[in-house]
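Thread title: Can someone regenerate the structure for this chain?

I was given the following input by a collaborator and told the matching C-alpha cells would be attached. They weren't. Posting the sequence so someone can regenerate them.
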Amino acid sequence: MADDAIMQVRKARARQLSEHRPLTPGELRSLPAPHPRWWQLISQMAKSGKPIADGIVELVVESAVDPSIPEFPAWLEDWDHRYPALTQNETLALVEKFLLCERGALLAGVAMHPYHYLALSAYYCARREPFEALTECVRAGYLDQAGGGFKYQACDLTWPLVTTQQTIARIDALVIAIALPAVAKAERHAARLRSAVPTLFSLLGRAVRGAGDLIRRALGPSS
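Best answer:
Regenerated them for you:
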C-alpha cells in the first residue's frame, strides 16, 4: 500500500539521523519508489524552472486530496553537517531511482536537473549534504555535465547532468556488488547441503539396519 511505502521511507530517514550513519546501497535500493503523481509534479517543477513555492503548493493540494501522495520533501536545501554526507554509492542508487522514475529503465542520455536530485535526496536521505558525492561521481566520469548549461548555487557543477553508458555500467556494478553476499551465502548453504546429503543417507541406513536388528531380536531365532 502507498501509506506503507511512505512509512518505510520515513523510518529509513529517521534511522539515518538517529544512528548518524548512511544507508547501505542495498537498504536504499530496497526502499519503495516515490508515488508516480508525486514524481510527476516534482519532475515538472525541476524541468520548468518555476519557483519552489509553486511546487510546494501543488503538492500540498494533491496530498490533501490523496493522502497516499507524500508531502513536499522537507529540508530540500537545508543540510545539517552533524550528519554524514551522502556517499558515492548512495548517490548512484539515487540516480538509479531517478532513471526508473523518469524513464522506467536505466538509459543513457537522460537529463537530470538539480531539483530532480535534491527532491530524491531529501525524500530518502533528509538533512544530509548531497552534492559532495555527486561531484565525485561527475569527476569519476559516471555522469556528464551539460555543455552550455547553468550553475546551481550550492555546487560547482553545470546542469543538467546527463546519464551515460558509464552511468549504467557503474549502477550495474553496484547492483552486482550488493547481490554478491547473498549469492555467496546461497553457495555456502548449497555446499553444506551437498556435504550433508551423504551423511544423511548414511545415518538413515544405520537407523534402518538398527531397526531391523531390533525386530529380528524381538521375534527370536528363525526356525
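The chain has one domain: 2-178.
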